Amino acid sequence: MSDIKKIKDDYFNKLNNDLNIESLNQIKTELFGKNGKISNSFKKLGSLPNDERKKFASDLNSIKNELQDKINSKLQEIETKEINSKLENEKVDVTLPEREFSRGKIHPVSQVIDEISSIFSEIGFSVEEGPDIENEHYNFTALNTPDNHPARDMHDTFYIDNNKELLLRTHTSPVQVRTMLNGKPPFKIIAPGRTYRSDSDQTHSPMFHQVEGLHIDKDINMGHLKGCLNYFIKSFFEVDKIKMRFRPSHFPFTEPSAEVDIGYEIKDGKIVIGEGDKWLEILGCGMVHPNVLKNVKVNPDKYQGYAFGIGIDRLGMLKYGINDLRAFFETDYRWLNHFGFDPLDVPSNYRGLSR
Amino acid sequence: MKFTIGWLKEHLDTQKKDNELIEKLTDIGLEVESFENLSSGLDSFKVAKIINAEQHPNADRLRICDVDIGLDDTVKVVCGAPNAKKDLLTVYAGPGSIIPKNNMKLSVSKIRGVTSYGMLCSESELNLSNESEGITELTTSKYSDKIGKNFFKSNTEKVVDLSITPNRPDCLGVRGIARDLAAAGVGKLKKISTKNIKKNGSQKIKVSITKDKNQGCTVFGSCLIEGVTNKESPQWLKEKIISLGQKPISAVVDITNYVMLDLNRPLHAYDADKIDKEIIVRNSKKGETFEALDNKEYKLDDDMCVISDKSGVLGLGGIIGGTRSGTEINTKNILLESAYFIPRSIRKTSKLLNIDTDAKFRFERGIDPQSIELGLSKAAELISEICGGKISNFDIQQTDKHEKNKIKFNVSLFEKITGFKVNDNETIKILTDLGFEVSKEKFKLDLKIPTWRPDITQPIDIVEEIVRIKGYENIETLQPEKTKIKDTLNAQQKLFHFLQRSVASKGYFETVTWSFTDSKINKLFRENLKEIKIVNPISSDLDVLRNSIFTNLTFYLKKNLDRGFKDISLFEIGPIFKGSKPGEQSTIIGAIKSGKVSRLNWNEKDRIVDVFDVKKDVIQTLVEAGYDRQSFFVRDKSPSYYHPGKSGSVYLDKDEIDPVAYFGEIHPNILKKLDIKTEGLVGFEIYIDYLREHKTKLKDLKTNFEYSDYQKSERDFAFVVDKNFKAQDLIEIISSIDKNLIRSIKIFDIYEGENIPEDKKSIALNVTIQSSEKTLEESDLEKINKLIISTVETKSGAKIRS
């Protein structure tokens, strides 16, 4: 017994020294090789008397296990040390720039259209579209603006033919006409899109964007119109309260008609929407004129409802502090980068309209 | 429409403060554009005296004047007026003043080398009269002790400017505004005071309205005033005219203007002695000409409503008078016209001749046909008061009585439209105050519409009248209901939004450019499409609708290159136009990319953008949108604006007729023509309209989940093929050998050069083989191996490279 105890103690001592992999292998051979010390001790088992043999075998086995465990842990220790010293040499400067990535942007007009669609989707509106080139019937006449109507002068129209029958739509309202002609009431739609007027200065661009809204059903009245727009404006500007004013106005295709102002104030040179004592006109609306309903084969004695038109670019300017309308369409890379949105920022109800 | 509060109060009896009136105007639909002090900005006009005037060294007609403006030092003013002499008392405007006539802002400026501090003003520049020959001469007796004082009396009168919607001609006169305010409860409309003017004898000039088809005049009232002395208007009248930003001319003209502004009743005064015998209101004949008061000669077409005499056309009825019969300061006898012209006729004529006058603006919107006599009385009274003269009886010719229209108004309609109630008595009061004649039946009101309200034709118009006077704030705000009639977006719209963000996520900046463009650039990208001209473009370089999105993208790319950007990725999603009819347009994504990839990057080598960059973007975008890469087919055909050898088109399927996308390098000639300087320019176009709707919905696709756990094997091959043999064909040949076993094919090398014949190339590819039924044995693999080689060799003429 003392022999094997001595072997154990000797080798534990050896194993506690600094070793490399070769000397560890050497130790392994010395202990467990063909003529190793532990192997040889096992050979002795047969020559021992029965009563000693059992105990010796048990002791030897436990010493063998202890030594093997010790060797294994030593082996791990050596390997870890070697890997560590190798990694030490592989160190890079992680403060060097990452590989190049490119980040795209969504134009603010598109983002605002998505915001608007998301808001109206929540209250049951669907999205309709119409062509950019319209005939004068859809753009004017069907909208209760006959040729001799002075309101036509307020639309500086681009014409495509000399007879003034084909034109670039001056508003998104013709989509109302097309939608109603192609379907049956009820209607609950918005129609965002490009619109054109021959006008150009700081606040006018020959092309701009509007969103049309239309809700026709049996009992839709001005209270619904007010509620719908109130909900929209609050949601769009992401405020809890909004000061809003409905003012009588005139559009040939609605009666009664209104213009809507929202309250604002200037704080530190920036426009703050919602409160304040100044008014800002942001949209036109009204109850769809019975003449328009008749023109699109909807019975005005049975159906009624509202329509509205909002300038999309202007909404975007107000919400995101953009000063010059013309910059929207000038494709200045710096402007697009600054005012553009990350493509993953999809406005939605559950994630919120904007970050 | 401008008016002063003072003038308003001539019609409205009210105790309300100005601000309350202003607020009320907006509340009832008469939008206030501005409300300001009349004399604001006029304080910089001073009474001044010329101390010395000497010849300008560099200009014969100019003088340099030393002007005393009441300060210690005189100021130097360069003046071109012949009457600018020593000791003259005149009006001086300092730098910063705004000249009333043309709204020009003065600044210190050098005139022919001599600095001039301000200006000496003529009466015309001050809107005092038409006198523009020399500078204003002030009388010594009145002004010699006022040097340096303000020339204009400080006026606390406030001017309101309203934006009147086209449906409200009645509010183009001060009285109409007063009536609306009275109905809204802020005062009482005063009665019009007409003195009983003395009328003697009949109107001696015969008037007739011909029975032409589409006769534009239905009533022509007139009166003759003989023996007048036309003169400058009295101060009160001048001030009224000036307060509204107009210029006094002579008493007769000012009076007609005053009546127009007061009652929206346009009048015209003729010099009766210049009328040849009689007045005939008739339709013009093509080719007739006349000289109008704007000093232009107009050539008339058929059927324009003209006022004429025996010698020819005197004026265009309701639009503009002629020089031949105009009143002058020495006019003795006046024929005063008060007529009704049909709006449609006015609009048609003025559009054809391109004339815009105040009268036209009013008649076009509709003048009260019942105001003929009132207008004549008011004007005749004032003329005889100011200019003297003998007034004839009124002569009224009319072909239409213009009786009041009637409407039956069902009172329940109001609540149905507005959602709130107004009781009948209040309704009746509002309508009565607005001038309606109301009689009440059971649930209906019988209404006679005032003739000054041509906009009111049906019951819904009555609803608007009541609700605007009652106030929109009474409309209740109802919670929006969330019921949906159909999906928010249809399939095509979903695709639009998906593709838009998919392309942006690949590093492209979205832009929005105009739908129109420069025909010179457009023609480079037009291909076979029709050029669609805009008849009245905003400028000559935006004269056509775009046939391609690349027109504007390349234009703006150049601008950004010029700003110093090099690596630019831009895209736009929007319409291109194929024809001039509604609907002849397509929705396209166009994208371009310039410069290099990995420019100045420490660990990647930079390279110029190439066709495979954009091919990747196109294919990835389509795959992300749910189209199957395996069925895509690429051809090397593309529009002529792409590099013929480095571009192609993508088809969703080999059998499709229309490609869904083009991609490639932009043709070098285009870069040259547009003077675009960049290392490389590539682009792609996706035709959204050609992308078909997915037949299977995702929820059905996902349920079908199949996979194989058996071992995969990979084999590499290299085939030597003709140089122009297409890799796509090779892949198709191999993949169709056994669709169940051949899972993927990757091309990992293309080689030309040593050991390969000159007209050949080597394509090296890696094929993954996997069964879904068993683990393939070596013999199975060997079999498929051989099959691949033999099939490729027979079908393509390729040789396996050993």
Question: Between the first and last Cα atoms of chain B, what is the distance in angstroms?
Answer: 93 Å
The radius of gyration computed from the alpha-carbon positions of chain A, rounded to a whole number of angstroms, is 41 Å
Q: Number of helical runs of chain A? A: 11
Q: Name the CATH superfamily classification of the largest domain in chain B.
A: Bira Bifunctional Protein, Domain 2
Strand tally of chain B: 43
What is the helical fraction of chain A, as a range of percent?
A: 25-40%
Alpha-beta content class of chain B = alpha+beta
CATH fold type of the largest domain in chain A: BirA Bifunctional Protein, domain 2
CATH architecture of the largest domain in chain A: 2-Layer Sandwich
Side-by-side strand order of the widest sheet of chain B: 28-32-33-39-38-37-36
How large is the share of residues in beta strands of chain A?
15-25%
CATH-defined superfamily of the largest domain in chain A: Bira Bifunctional Protein, Domain 2
Q: What's the number of helices of chain B?
A: 20
Q: What is the CATH top level name of the largest domain in chain B?
A: Alpha Beta
Summarize the topology.
The complex is a heterodimer of chains A (355) and B (802).
Chain A: H1 2-16, H2 21-32, H3 37-44, H4 50-89, H5 108-122, E1 126-127, E2 133-135, H6 136-139, E3 166-168, H7 174-181, E4 187-196, E5 207-217, H8 222-237, E6 244-251, E7 254-267, E8 270-273, E9 278-288, H9 290-295, E10 304-311, H10 312-320, H11 333-339
Parallel strand pairs in A: 1-4
Antiparallel strand pairs in A: 2-3, 4-5, 5-10, 6-7, 7-8, 7-9, 9-10
Helix pairs in contact in A: 1-4, 5-10
Chain B: E1 2-4, H1 5-11, E2 12-13, H2 18-27, E3 31-37, E4 45-55, E5 63-68, E6 75-79, E7 89-93, E8 109-111, E9 114-116, E10 119-120, H3 140-143, E11 158-163, H4 174-183, E12 188-189, E13 206-209, E14 217-226, H5 235-243, H6 251-263, E15 268-271, E16 278-283, E17 289-291, E18 297-299, E19 305-309, E20 312-316, E21 320-321, E22 334-341, H7 343-353, H8 358-365, H9 372-387, E23 390-391, E24 395-398, E25 406-410, H10 412-418, H11 424-433, E26 437-440, E27 444-448, H12 459-470, H13 491-504, E28 509-510, E29 516-517, H14 519-525, E30 532-533, E31 544-545, H15 550-562, E32 569-577, E33 585-594, E34 596-597, E35 607-608, H16 611-624, E36 633-635, E37 642-651, E38 661-666, H17 668-673, E39 681-687, H18 698-703, E40 713-722, H19 727-735, E41 742-751, E42 760-769, H20 778-796, E43 799-800
Parallel strand pairs in B: 13-16, 28-32
Antiparallel strand pairs in B: 1-11, 2-12, 3-11, 4-5, 4-7, 5-6, 7-10, 8-9, 14-22, 14-23, 14-24, 15-22, 16-19, 17-18, 19-20, 20-21, 25-27, 26-27, 29-31, 30-31, 32-33, 33-39, 34-35, 36-37, 37-38, 38-39, 40-42, 40-43, 41-42
Helix pairs in contact in B: 1-4, 4-11, 5-6, 6-9, 7-8, 10-12, 14-15, 19-20
